[in-house]
Specification:
Layout: E1 6-12, H1 16-22, H2 40-49, E2 52-58, H3 69-89, E3 94-99, H4 105-117, E4 123-127, H5 141-149, E5 153-157, H6 176-191, H7 193-196, E6 201-204, H8 211-219, H9 225-230, H10 235-239, E7 243-245, H11 252-258, E8 267-268, H12 278-289, H13 295-309
Parallel strand pairs: 1-2, 2-3, 3-4, 4-5, 5-6, 6-7, 7-8
């Protein structure tokens, strides 16, 4: 067990007003499609049972976009105010990633200012695409410029691609989510986001989707002039700067693949709770204990790397 307890950087919240606002648009969740029971007390009890000292909360897929820009802005503000209240009420247990009303860039810049300067957000949580607009798209460049200026931590959670409709009997988290994480990373490589934002810290869920496995195929894009300009140091150098959580990936196979492209200093514990239920949280905790890593590397994954990104968590 990590001294001081594990820090979970992939921990979702489901405020009641969020569920009401989305209604049927929330879609299927997890493998079963059913919504989990959730409240702050339920999260804290599950954390206590599994040795998790603190969690950085976020809103999961499908996010908050309601089709109505004004309603989306209101929901973003309500979710962020709610997450900040959890942090105030339980300062030793919760941090939070602010949600943004994307794809509305101007409204999102306003929300970034409020989230960091008023609410004390620990970072921002983004989806891998917004109605087919991927994070490497030039339309989102002002968002990343502001987050770079703030040296922000940016947590990416996957969602379905705009045209996803294949294999409808297979839950989206099984295949579509890791593939969309891969699309997001490649879009940011091609668009130069990582190169233009050397001070921002990027976390990608679920061990980076299929990125580690496909690294050499992705690197072949260097024959494209745009890719050469925007990834001048090569794909491997960029990936070594990224962080990856081990939600649903704290197993030796995923770990050994990640070790081909990064090291334990870039890995973080994630549970994906409550969409992944408490049994999965327990499996993730036991999984990182069983990784072929030294005790110091285990401590980095379980706690140390998160504290480096979120120094206030050391006080919790």
């Amino acid at each position: 067990m990590a001294k001081g307890g594990i820090i979970d950087v992939h921990h979702h919240i489901l405020p009641p007003f969020y569920l009401t606002a989305l209604g049927e648009r929330i879609g299927t969740q997890g493998l079963t499609g059913s919504l989990p029971d959730w409240s702050p007390s339920i999260s804290l009890e599950a954390m206590d049972r599994n040795g998790i000292a603190a969690a950085v909360t976020s809103i999961s897929s499908p996010g908050i976009h309601l089709g109505d820009p004004a309603a989306t802005k209101r929901l973003a503000r309500a979710c962020n105010d709610y997450a900040a209240s959890l942090k105030r009420d339980h300062p030793k247990r919760f941090g939070f990633f602010a949600v943004l009303p994307l794809p509305d860039v101007d409204a999102s810049l306003v929300e970034i200012e409020h989230a960091f300067d008023v609410l004390g957000a620990d970072g921002v949580g983004l989806l891998t695409n917004y109605g087919g607009v991927y994070p490497g798209d030039t339309r989102l460049a002002p968002i990343f410029a502001e987050l770079e200026r703030r040296k922000a931590v940016i947590f990416f959670h996957p969602t379905a691609s705009a045209g996803w409709e294949w294999l409808p009997d297979i839950p989206m988290p099984t295949l579509e989510f890791p593939f969309d994480t891969t699309r997001a990373v490649v879009s940011m490589l091609l668009g130069g986001t990582f190169t233009h934002c050397p001070k921002a810290r990027f976390i990608f869920s679920h061990a980076g989707g299929t990125v580690p496995f496909l690294i050499e195929r992705i690197a072949r894009l260097s024959i494209l002039p745009q890719f050469q300009r925007n990834v001048p140091d090569g794909v491997r150098a960029v990936l070594r700067r990224l962080y990856f959580d081990l939600a649903l990936a704290s197993n030796p196979l995923a770990f050994s693949t990640l070790m081909q492209v990064t090291d334990c200093g870039q890995l973080l514990f994630g549970s994906d709770y409550p969409h992944a239920r408490e049994k999965t949280m327990a499996d993730m905790v036991n999984g990182i204990k069983g990784l072929p890593a030294s005790d110091p590397d285990y401590d980095k994954i379980a706690r140390g790397n998160a504290i480096a990104l979120f120094p206030t968590l050391a006080q919790r």
